[in-house]
Amino acid sequence: MTFTSRATLISFLLLASRVAAHGYVEWVFANGRNYTGDNVDDPQGIPTPIRTVSGRGPVTDVTSQYIACGNQAKVVSEEALVDAGGTIEIRWSPSWPHNAGSMTAWMAECGGSDCTKFDDLSQAQWFKVDEKGVDQATGQWYLGEIFQHPGMPYNLTIPNLKAGHYLLRHELINLALVATPGGSGAELYPQGIQLSVQGSGNLVPQSSDCVHFPRAYKATDPGLTFAPGDQPKSQYQIPGGPLAKLVAASGQSSETGTTNAASLTALSTASPSTLTDDDKQTSTITSNSTTTTGDSSSTQTSIDGSTDATSQPTDGCSGKSTKKRRGVALSEIRGRTLRGRHVRV
Ligand SMILES: *[C@@H]1O[C@H](CO)[C@@H](O)[C@H](O)[C@H]1NC(C)=O
Ligand SMILES: *[C@@H]1O[C@H](CO)[C@@H](O)[C@H](O)[C@H]1NC(C)=O
Ligand SMILES: *[C@@H]1O[C@H](CO)[C@@H](O)[C@H](O)[C@H]1NC(C)=O
């Protein structure tokens, strides 16, 4: 083969890969071990912790079941071992072409079993553990910063979670086509990675921060309708709400320093009254903070949700979804309660 024809062939292949586009998780590296994913074009059923997807294409319908772990994601036969507090490197296929958008990572316990048996993703209760949109230091998309270095992995530090079997949902969101007439809108590339988290970690998510896919996103979310060329990057809001607050499994607050965890401790010290009393009290205070913060619509929801709450929000994602909604309300109000008190002091 001459140099010219080889060069032509290479450009053709590059072009073909861009037209076919996009990507998938090729390998992950954790605790000194490299786990390769299956071949998406021709799956061999090899042992891997990376749930196999049916191709390189995106999920564009946020109401699809495939929004959880990717198109026709299949359970696989391994788990990657990772220490709580340790890092997992996640490497996307090298031809990933998109630079505008965000990256998120979510985790869900595998229903009390090993993740190799956890097939019904409608049961997965996800909590967000990482999100990367715009790097405020450089004003650039993290997505572009990582992928402009071909082969650079995205690295996730696993929080100091209680040991167990967790499914990791890692996702890239491509916004390039949002403003394209007739385009597909935001393209989402979720992928599932089966993990066995080891160690003596004790954190669990606040139940109020657990969500389901589908449902966690709406097609109208600002983070999915953002047109990169038309809107300032600094205004970008990553979809799916804030990172989950993590608390010690016993229900006491943790060292993570998150606002709500701190609020919960302070509140339990300051207010040993029953929850019902607490709810009444906080509803009043919330109304006051509404006038100062001006976010009355979300506050109203919180009050409605909390008036009939009869049980303390549980830690971890095990509560039923109605309880979880109350949990959201109560924890939000608790945060506001403290702020209200501070204002008065
Ligand atoms: C993991 O294996 C792939 C080959 O399957 C290799 O290209 C990659 O460099 C390895 N990653 C690490 C971190 O060793
Ligand atoms: C992830 O970690 C690897 C290994 O330490 C490093 O080479 C790479 O630059 C890191 N990726 C990012 C985005 O920082
Ligand atoms: C909260 O509002 C009520 C009625 O609007 C008022 O009576 C009360 O003094 C307010 N409390 C604070 C702390 O502002």
From TrEMBL:
Q: Point to the regions of Low complexity compositional bias.
A: 282-307
Q: Which UniProt keywords apply?
A: Carbohydrate metabolism, Cellulose degradation, Copper, Disulfide bond, Metal-binding, Monooxygenase, Oxidoreductase, Polysaccharide degradation, Secreted, Signal
Q: Does the keyword Lyase apply?
A: no
The principal localisation class reads: secreted
Q: Which cofactor does it need?
A: Cu(2+)
- Residue ranges for the region (Disordered) are 271-329
Pfam families xrefs? AA9
A GO cellular component term found in this entry reads:
extracellular region
**Which reactions does this protein catalyse?**
[(1->4)-beta-D-glucosyl]n+m + reduced acceptor + O2 = 4-dehydro-beta-D-glucosyl-[(1->4)-beta-D-glucosyl]n-1 + [(1->4)-beta-D-glucosyl]m + acceptor + H2O
What subcellular locations does the record give? Secreted
Q: Which domain of life is it from?
A: Eukaryota
- The enzyme class is oxidoreductase
Q: Which Gene3D superfamilies match?
A: 2.70.50.70
Q: Which residues form the Auxiliary Activity family 9 catalytic domain?
A: 22-231
Q: Which residues form the signal peptide?
A: 1-21
EC number(s) stated in the UniProt entry for this protein: 1.14.99.56
Q: Which GO terms describe its biological process?
A: cellulose catabolic process
- Give an example GO molecular function: metal ion binding
Q: Which family does it belong to?
A: Belongs to the polysaccharide monooxygenase AA9 family.
In Swiss-Prot or TrEMBL terms, this protein is called: lytic cellulose monooxygenase (C4-dehydrogenating)
Which organism encodes this protein? Answer: Ganoderma sinense ZZ0214-1
